[in-house]
Write a structure and sequence with these properties.
The protein is built from 9 helices and no strands. Helix 5 runs antiparallel to helix 6. The protein is mostly helical. The longest helix has about 35 residues. About 75% of the residues lie in helices and about 0% in strands. It has one domain.
Length: about 260
């Protein structure tokens, strides 16, 4: 009648705690993890498994969690189409001068090939995409849809996804724009978290439309991994241009 499944016993017992855990996880726990390869994805990968066990024990079905096998084809189709658009844009970005400033990220400027591969093949897929999609578009989505109308559930999930990115966005601003005023940093933080909330809404829409967690996961993976590779390509292009410019200048006598 109201477009949401009837709440069952156990649902309310995890929704509140889940919201609190997700609000604090990325902003309080993750910054305190040791900065060593394997820790971030290990902790988040373990949390993914624990959360799925808790959700299933609370009575959530595979379909509610976006894990139904009969929706995989739809998830692949929707997610693949969306990912292709994003990958195409990011692939072209480093070659377009007007887009390069948007792709510059001091956090990846000096990464070697091994560090890039680690992020692209392990840290992002397991530590970020798998964990965030199961947590937000899987379990949180299912819990909120049992208690709220669909639009309210979607808005709440998107807002929490924006809040989830407060600390990462703050860290990115600190590294990439250290000279900004306090007011400028607050504006950048607001814009960044609003953008991630909008991304969360899009991921949630893909999840609903396809009926599968695979759809938002493919788009999320394309955006994060593609963004990393585009930023690395932009940084390396800039480094080569700077080196070439330096060699060019040093070969000419200075007239004064």
């Amino acid at each position: 009648m109201h477009g949401r499944p009837r709440a069952r016993r156990g649902t309310r017992s995890i929704t509140g705690p889940l919201v609190l855990v997700l609000a604090a996880w990325n902003n309080v726990l993750v910054p305190r993890l040791p900065d060593r390869p394997g820790v971030y994805e290990g902790v988040n990968g373990a949390a993914t498994g624990v959360l799925l066990v808790v959700a299933r024990a609370a009575g959530f079905s595979r379909a509610e969690l976006g894990l139904s096998g009969d929706r995989l084809r739809a998830g692949a189709a929707w997610g693949g189409a969306a990912a292709a658009v994003v990958v195409s844009g990011l692939a072209a970005g480093p070659a377009i001068p007007s887009l390069r400033p948007l792709l510059r990220d001091a956090r990846v400027a000096g990464l070697g090939n091994g560090a890039v591969a680690y992020r692209a093949l392990l840290r992002i897929p397991v530590g970020t995409v798998l964990w965030e999609e199961v947590a937000f578009r899987g379990v949180l989505h299912a819990a909120l849809r049992r208690e709220l109308p669909p639009r309210a559930a979607a808005a709440a999930g998107a807002a929490l996804f924006g809040l989830w990115h407060v600390q990462p966005t703050t860290a990115a601003i600190r590294v990439n724009a250290p000279d900004r005023t306090a007011a400028g940093r607050r504006v950048a933080l607001l814009l960044g978290c609003t953008g991630t909330a909008a991304a969360g809404a899009l991921f949630g829409r893909l999840r609903v439309r396809s009926g599968s967690l695979l759809a938002p996961a493919l788009l999320h993976l394309a955006a994060n991994t593609g963004g990393l590779l585009a930023s690395v390509a932009t940084a390396r292009r800039g480094a080569r241009a700077g080196a070439s410019f330096g060699r060019h200048r040093s070969s000419r006598p200075v007239p004064w």
